[in-house]
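RECORD TYPE: inverse folding
INPUT: C-alpha cells
STRUCTURE:
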C-alpha cells in the first residue's frame, strides 16, 4: 500500500505527458486524491501497515499527519475541479500545474513516511522545488518575486538543516546512522554539546519550512501569490510535514536528556511567531497575506504546545488537525472571493454577503473556526495549552499567550467583518455579476465539509481518532 501511494503519482505523470488531455490531467489529480484517501483509511484501520520497505513506514507518530494530508488533498482536489475551469491558459500550462500538484503531494507524503532523517531532508527540498512552480503559476511580477524568495529562503533553511544533520552525526560518535529508530535507541549516548548545536541548526532549517518566525519571510508572499488550492496545500499540509521532522528531532533531544534546552528554543520561536503576527496583521492590505500570517501564528502555537509537554501534546495534535481543516477552508474560500471581485486588496471588497451569500458564510465560519470560537476544536486545543501553562506555573507566559491571541483575533476579525458586510461599491457590481458563473458547486462543498469536521471535533472526538492521537503523542 505504501508503494502504491508513492509510485502512482509518478505513473500518472508519465501518462499525462503521453495522453496530453486537460480532462485527463484533472482526472489523474482526482484519482490520486481518492487512492491516497483510500489507502490512508486502510492504514488507519491497521490494514496493510506491515511493510518490508526500509525507508517508508507508517507508525504511530506519522499516521495522524498522513490522515490530515490525505483529507486536505482530497478536499483540494474536489475544489480544483471547479477552479481549473476558470483558467484561461494553454493546455500545456494546465498540464504542468496538475503534474506539479502530484509531485508536490508525493514529496509531502514521502517526507511524512520517511524513516531516515537524511531522506526526510531530501524530500523536504523536493517539496520546495515542486511547489515553486505552483507559486509562480500565474506568472505575474509578484508571483515570480514570491517564488524566488520562497526558493532562496527555503534553500538557506535546508542548508542550515544539513549542517545540523552533520553536527548530529558528529554527536552520535560511533553510531553511524540517520535512521530515526536507531537514533532513538542510542540517543542517551550522544554528546550533548554537539547535539544541542545540531538542534539549533535543524530547528532553524526545518523551522524555515514550517513557517516559524524569524525565518518566515517566504510564507506571506508565497501563500498570497499561489493559486488558492495551492495556498491551502502549503498552509494545511506542507507546514505539517516540516513540523513532523522537528517532532522527530525533538524526541531525540528528549531521549538524550536535553529536552529542557529543546523546549526553551521552541518556546522562544513560538512566541516570536505570535508576536510577529500580532504586529503585521494590522498592516496588511492583502487578505491572502493575512491568512498567511495566521499560519505563522498557528505554527507558533504548535511550537509552544510542544515546548510545554504533558497534556499540551494532546492539544498540539488537536490543533494541528483543526488548523489544517480551518485554514484549508479559509484559503479555498479566498479563492472564491478572488474570482468574484478580481482583487486581493482588502479595501476594494465590501458587501460579500450581498455578492455571494454562500461564500460570505464560509468566510465568516472559517474565521470563527480559526479564531477558536466554541465549538471549534481549536478552542479545545488552546484551552488545554492555557490550562497546562497555569498548571506548570507559567503565569506570565499564559497572560502573554492570551494577549497575543486576542490581538491577532481582533486584527483578522476586523478585516473579515469589513469584507463581509456593507454595501458593494457600484464599480464592482458588474464585475461580480460577470464572475458569479465562475464559482461552481465544487468550490463550496470542500469548505463546508472541513468546517463541519472542525466544529464537530470541538464537541466529540470519535474513539478511533482519540486512539490515533494518543498513539501519536508517544512520538514527542
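DESIGNED SEQUENCE:
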Amino acid at each position: 500500500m505504501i508503494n502504491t501511494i508513492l509510485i502512482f503519482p509518478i505513473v500518472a505523470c508519465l501518462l499525462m505527458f503521453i495522453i496530453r488531455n486537460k480532462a485527463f490531467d484533472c482526472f489523474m489529480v482526482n484519482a490520486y486524491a481518492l487512492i491516497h484517501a483510500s489507502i490512508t483509511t486502510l492504514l488507519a484501520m491497521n490494514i496493510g501497515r506491515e511493510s518490508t520497505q526500509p525507508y517508508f513506514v507508517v507508525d504511530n507518530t506519522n499516521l495522524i499527519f498522513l490522515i490530515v494530508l490525505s483529507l486536505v488533498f482530497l478536499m483540494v482536489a474536489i475544489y480544483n475541479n471547479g477552479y481549473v475551469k476558470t483558467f484561461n491558459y494553454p493546455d500545456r500550462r494546465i498540464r504542468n500545474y496538475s503534474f506539479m500538484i502530484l509531485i508536490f503531494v508525493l514529496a509531502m507524503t514521502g517526507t511524512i513516511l520517511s524513516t531516515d532523517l537524511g531522506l526526510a531532508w531530501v524530500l523536504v527540498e523536493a517539496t520546495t522545488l515542486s511547489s515553486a512552480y505552483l507559486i509562480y503559476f500565474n506568472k505575474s511580477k509578484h508571483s515570480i518575486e514570491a517564488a524566488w524568495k520562497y526558493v532562496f529562503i527555503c534553500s538557506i533553511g535546508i542548508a542550515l538543516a544539513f549542517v545540523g544533520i552533520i553536527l548530529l552525526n558528529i554527536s552520535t560518535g560511533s553510531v553511524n546512522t540517520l535512521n530515526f529508530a536507531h537514533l532513538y535507541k542510542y540517543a542517551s549516548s550522544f554528546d550533548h554539546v554537539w547535539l544541542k548545536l545540531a538542534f539549533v541548526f535543524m530547528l532553524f532549517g526545518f523551522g524555515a519550512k514550517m513557517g516559524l518566525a524569524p525565518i518566515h519571510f517566504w510564507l506571506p508572499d508565497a501563500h498570497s501569490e499561489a493559486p488558492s488550492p495551492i495556498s491551502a496545500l502549503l498552509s494545511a499540509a506542507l507546514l505539517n510535514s516540516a513540523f513532523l521532522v522537528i517532532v522527530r528531532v525533538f524526541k531525540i533531544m528528549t531521549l538524550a536528556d536535553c529536552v529542557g534546552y529543546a523546549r526553551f528554543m521552541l518556546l522562544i520561536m513560538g512566541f516570536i511567531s505570535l508576536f510577529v503576527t500580532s504586529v503585521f496583521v494590522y498592516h496588511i492590505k492583502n487578505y491572502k497575506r493575512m491568512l498567511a500570517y495566521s499560519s505563522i501564528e498557528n505554527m507558533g502555537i504548535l511550537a509552544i504546545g510542544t515546548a510545554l509537554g504533558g497534556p499540551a501534546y494532546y492539544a498540539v495534535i488537536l490543533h494541528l488537525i483543526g488548523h489544517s481543516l480551518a485554514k484549508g477552508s479559509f484559503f479555498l474560500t479566498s479563492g472564491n472571493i478572488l474570482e468574484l471581485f478580481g482583487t486581493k486588496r482588502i479595501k476594494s471588497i465590501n458587501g460579500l454577503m450581498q455578492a455571494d451569500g454562500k461564500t460570505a458564510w464560509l468566510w465568516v465560519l472559517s474565521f470563527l473556526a480559526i479564531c477558536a470560537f466554541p465549538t471549534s476544536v481549536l478552542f479545545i486545543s488552546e484551552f488545554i495549552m492555557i490550562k497546562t501553562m497555569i498548571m506548570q506555573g507559567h503565569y506570565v507566559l499564559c497572560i502573554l499567550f492570551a494577549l497575543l491571541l486576542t490581538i491577532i483575533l481582533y486584527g483578522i476579525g476586523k478585516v473579515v467583518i469589513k469584507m463581509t458586510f456593507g454595501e458593494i461599491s457600484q464599480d464592482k457590481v458588474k464585475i461580480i455579476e460577470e464572475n458569479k458563473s465562475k464559482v461552481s458547486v465544487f468550490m463550496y462543498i470542500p469548505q463546508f465539509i472541513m468546517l463541519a469536521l472542525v466544529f464537530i471535533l470541538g464537541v466529540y472526538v470519535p474513539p478511533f481518532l482519540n486512539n490515533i492521537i494518543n498513539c501519536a503523542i508517544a512520538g514527542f
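NOTES: The two ends are 26 Å apart (CA to CA).
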